[in-house]
Amino acid sequence: MSKLPNATASIFSVMSQLANKHNAINLSQGFPNFPVDERLLQIHERLLNENIHQYTPMAGLPSLLNKIASLTNKNYQREINTDTELLITSGATQGIFTTINALVNYGDDVLILDPSYDSYEPSVLVAGGKPVRISLNDDYSPNFNRIEAAITAKTKLLIINNPHNPTGKIWNEQDFEALETILEKYENILLLSDEVYEYISFKHPHISVNTRPKLINRAIIASSFGKSLHVTGWKVGYLIAPEPLMKEIKKVHQFLVFSVNSTAQHVITKYLDIVNFDEISTMYANKRALFLEGIQSSCFKILPSEGTYFQVVNYSEISNKNDVEFAKELITKYGVAAIPISVFYKDATDKKMLRFCFAKTDETLINAVKILNNI
């Protein structure tokens, strides 16, 4: 009997394949199409002839762990123990899967806020847990009344995603205070904070769970070098968690991947000495501005994008079709690929919304804008 009887090809694969078939501009799948930093390539080339091609320690390359600890202290003023509170993972998705399968037992409830990244629910199901999907507010802020109402004696874990994929929403101080008030009442509930877009924020600064003393002793925080450094194909992420939780996570990790790509770990270690994350955020802010200014006069209604490299729009003035059908039409008829937001909901809530990825070359964005303005 299948553990994932309803699993099908992801919408990202479907839309990308359709975009390739129709030679459409692909603003659907969330990965950059521009070259990585030349300095990163130079480090990679320089290190390839060195003895870096064997297993690293299971938890990660010690020098990289130390760099992450320094980065966390610099940005969040949190000191972490590299031996007991940090783990390099094969991308954040593997880290999230490992966390859920290490900490969620059969019959446990896991609260997931919709619209949500598509890996959360399958990970819970494989662990034998029960996904409990809770809709965000219309502006995609968390609805804490709904969250608290969903808590039962079986609730083991709450998953939050900040900055938020697919909407670009960022939690504010009041959101975290409300969350802390709730969790103080339920001391056995753990928190998994997906923060893979932590270094891509615009108008409002990203608030990390790393900065919340009331939460860090029960929180697992997932980060991604793939997203932060736009090297998604390298699949290198990391988890930060208190020692008792990390001990259980490492038990699963060692039998799932054991250790992560050694070359990527060595290169990233060196690159962290020279990269400026503020410059990366500024670069994406410029791309966001280019895309938004370009479609300002279109028939698409633009929703706020506070972080990530995604932009959500409403197309209700253009078509009455459901978002999946309109997204397909956008590819086949007009030549631009996007992701329909309904696929991020358990009940396929359709609000006539699409997600565009603006982590693309300026030329790609300009060409897409020309098409979108004529729809």
TrEMBL record:
Transferase keyword on record: yes
Gene3D superfamilies for the chain: Aspartate Aminotransferase, domain 1, Type I PLP-dependent aspartate aminotransferase-like (Major domain)
Pfam families assigned: Aminotran_1_2 (PF00155)
Chain ranges of the Aminotransferase class I/classII large domain: 24-370
Record's keyword annotation contains Transferase: yes
Cofactor: pyridoxal 5'-phosphate
Transmembrane regions listed in the UniProt entry: none
NCBIfam families (UniProt xref): PRK09082.1 (NF006569)
PANTHER family listed in its UniProt record: FI04487P
Protein name: Methionine aminotransferase
Organism whose genome encodes this protein: Tenacibaculum holothuriorum
